[in-house]
Q: What sequence folds into this?
């Protein structure tokens, strides 16, 4: 294989069918196949998000950060109190977005690699008074930490606050049944566990959150305003042409194929999003067993470790040159991202298509093992065996 495999926490490897759907001459946003792909994608998003029939999916051209801005700007007015559950780099970005909207931002933080407790969150909401919304990062890609959404929605609900979850490194891989949780906004970017090229920001929004947007004293900037997009999303779902701002048409064609694969992956015998969640968990557990046999440790605490990536400490005496050594063996992994720790660890993404491709996972474990110990080491063979057993 000449091409290196992409095992960073996004963008990720995509399936041949997704590449094929994407790689066509650019269609018009009003072309019948785009109307159909857009409408079908909106419908399938409710299934992938496990969201209610009256929830509203949005598909915007942009990266995940676009919906971070959009969620905040549609819910929060200057002077509103909001709580941010801080688990890493991306929750710090959320807090900055909220500060720029002149919100009063209360941070509930935990040591890197950990999540704040239910008690700490409850205390923050009690002290905060009238809290408009709680913002949390489902999986923080800088630390590999996963929050428990059910704890956050329960505490927020008890205090009458809305909940917003950043699912950029989680949606389609980590358990998240939006309706059952009672969550208000769950957004992601296309380049992660949905298994698509980068370029789309996707979200599902509850009726309660849409109602809050209508009560805002001033409308948000026009591109991120849900009210700008509602008629467009309704029209596409009815397979009718409409225009507000040009959608990323090739991405939409790929999205339909990608979402269909998530809901019905006949090639790999996975049916329904729950099967996809379970597959990601199995792969993560198998990789953890392999890391452990290579003598590696994660920076995330075992009780809150995500299944979409591994944030791995450099072993004693090793540093970021390990990332290049792994790259030389055909596997692209990422360096650290959490500001105060970034030189002490590296990250391996395991989401989307690669989780159904054992050879890619084997190549990844082999590349890490050989970068650490050279060729033919017993540790690498043991790690590969543990991986094979776990898959
Ligand atoms: N939130 C999380 C958890 C992420 O992992 C990322 C991207 N790594 C973002 C937000 C921002 O997404 P994007 O880079 O697509 O703007």
A:
């Amino acid at each position: 294989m000449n091409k290196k495999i992409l095992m960073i926490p996004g963008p990720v490897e995509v399936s041949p069918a997704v590449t094929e759907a994407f790689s066509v001459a650019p269609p018009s946003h009003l072309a019948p196949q785009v109307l159909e792909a857009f409408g079908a994608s909106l419908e399938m998003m409710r299934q992938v998000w496990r969201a209610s029939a009256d929830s509203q999916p949005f598909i915007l051209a942009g990266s995940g950060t676009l919906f971070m801005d959009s969620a905040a700007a549609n819910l929060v007015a200057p002077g509103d109190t909001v709580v941010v559950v801080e688990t890493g780099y991306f929750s710090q970005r959320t807090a900055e977005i909220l500060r720029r909207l002149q919100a009063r931002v209360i941070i509930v933080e935990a040591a890197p690699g950990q999540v704040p407790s239910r008690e700490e969150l409850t205390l923050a909401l009690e002290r905060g008074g009238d809290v408009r919304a709680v913002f949390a990062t489902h999986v923080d890609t800088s630390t590999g930490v996963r929050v428990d959404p059910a704890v956050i929605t329960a505490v927020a609900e008890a205090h009458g606050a809305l909940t917003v979850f950043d699912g950029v490194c989680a949606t389609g891989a980590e358990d998240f049944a939006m309706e059952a949780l009672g969550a208000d906004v769950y957004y992601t970017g296309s380049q992660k566990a949905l298994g698509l090229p980068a370029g789309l920001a996707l979200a599902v929004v509850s009726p309660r959150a849409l109602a809050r947007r209508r009560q805002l004293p001033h409308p948000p900037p026009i591109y991120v305003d849900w009210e700008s997009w509602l008629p467009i999303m309704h029209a596409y779902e009815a397979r009718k042409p409409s225009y507000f701002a040009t959608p990323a048409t090739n991405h939409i064609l790929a999205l339909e194929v990608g979402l269909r694969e998530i809901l019905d992956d006949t090639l790999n015998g996975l049916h329904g999003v729950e099967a996809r969640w379970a597959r990601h968990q199995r792969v993560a557990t198998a990789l953890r067993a392999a890391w452990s046999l290579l003598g590696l440790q994660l920076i995330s605490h075992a009780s809150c470790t995500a299944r979409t990536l591994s944030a791995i400490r450099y072993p004693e005496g090793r540093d970021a040159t390990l990332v290049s050594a792994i790259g030389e063996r055909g596997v692209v992994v990422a360096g650290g991202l959490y500001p105060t720790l970034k030189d002490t660890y590296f990250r391996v993404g395991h989401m989307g298509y690669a989780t159904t491709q054992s050879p890619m996972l084997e190549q990844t474990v082999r590349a890490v093992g050989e970068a650490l110990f050279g060729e033919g080491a017993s540790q690498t063979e043991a790690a590969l065996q543990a991986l094979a057993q776990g898959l």
About this structure: The mean pLDDT is 97.
